[in-house]
# Entry
Amino acid sequence: MKRYLWAAGAGLLVTMVVGLLAMSSFAAPSPLKPFERGSWREVLRAHAGRPTLVHFWGVTCGPCKVELPQLGQFMKDHPGIDVVTISADLVPNLPDATQAMLDKAGLASADNFIFGDGYVERLRFEIDPSWQGDIPRTMLIGRDGAISTIEGTADISDLDKWSAGQGARR
# Structure
């Protein structure tokens, strides 16, 4: 009888642990990926054929702190739009603060990057040779690959219109 109870208890414990691990991995935020030379090509390739909003921001950017929660709500309201964030802050080594801001804004499950190369000019040039580094900056990539850029804070109503034009439902 004791052996049966022990086996039943052990089985229940294993089932609970497996369930907890499955739930935690399901809810786990996507980790920050280093944005390095060649990453822009990879982002374009990974999201090809899907409407994608790419947002460049930084933890030291005042307007970004206001805009991030709005983008988090946009992502929630528009599941047919891929959302990519790229922390392009000139202040290096802020991954913890970056992740905390993304979590708080509801963007933890987006495809999140942080500049991982000290030569930020090269990274910006790969993205857009005319970009001088101002943030926030949002690039809207259509299903057809056409890119439009919003310098400064994006108006959510404009993003909604763009999303509707991409056939992405709310």
Notes: DSSP finds six helices and six strands in the chain. Confidence is low (pLDDT under 50) at residues 4-27. Residues 2-27 form the longest helix (26 residues).
